[in-house]
Design a protein that fits this description.
3 helices, globular
C-alpha cells in the first residue's frame, strides 16, 4: 500500500502530543482545515465521528488502531470507489517527539487517485503538523 505523508519534530513529549491529537472535538483549534469534529464516544478503535471541513464538506470517519500515546488511523470515503485512510503517528525522539501523518488511498481506483492527489494532499499535512506541534508544545 503506497502512502503519502509528512513528518516533523516537536519538543513536546509523546504524551503531550497524544493529549492534543486524541481529542478530535478540539482539532479545529489548531487544524485550520477542520471546522468541527464531533465524536460518538471516546477515541478507541471502532469509534466514529462526524467531521466538517473548513470548505463545508461533511464526512463520517472511523478510527482504528488506536494506540495511546503512539497514534491511530482514521478512514473515510474519498473519490468514487476509494477510501482515504489517514495514518497518524507519534514517535519518541530524544526529549520530544516526531509526529507524522500519511494518507493511503485505497479501493479499485485508489492507484489512479493516489497518483493524482496523494502528494498534493500530503503537502496539506505540513500546516496540520505545525499546528499540532505548537498546540502540544504550549502544554509543557
Amino acid at each position: 500500500m503506497k502512502t503519502y505523508g509528512k513528518s516533523r519534530s516537536t519538543l513536546a513529549s509523546p504524551e503531550q502530543v497524544w493529549s492534543v491529537w486524541s481529542n478530535p472535538d478540539n482539532w479545529n483549534r489548531w487544524n485550520t482545515g477542520i471546522r468541527a469534529c464531533v465524536m460518538n464516544g471516546p477515541l478507541v478503535s471502532g469509534a466514529t465521528a462526524k467531521m466538517e471541513t473548513a470548505h463545508g464538506s461533511s464526512h463520517e470517519v472511523r478510527f482504528e488502531d488506536v494506540q495511546p500515546p503512539r497514534g491511530f488511523t482514521m478512514s473515510m470515503t474519498g473519490p468514487p470507489l476509494c477510501t482515504f485512510t489517514f495514518i497518524c503517528e507519534i514517535t519518541p525522539d530524544g526529549g520530544g517527539s516526531t509526529i507524522a501523518q500519511r494518507i493511503a488511498i485505497q479501493g479499485p481506483l485508489g492507484f489512479l487517485f493516489g497518483a493524482l492527489m496523494g502528494a498534493k494532499m500530503a503537502e496539506h499535512f505540513v500546516p496540520v503538523l505545525d499546528g499540532l506541534a505548537a498546540e502540544s508544545e504550549s502544554r509543557s
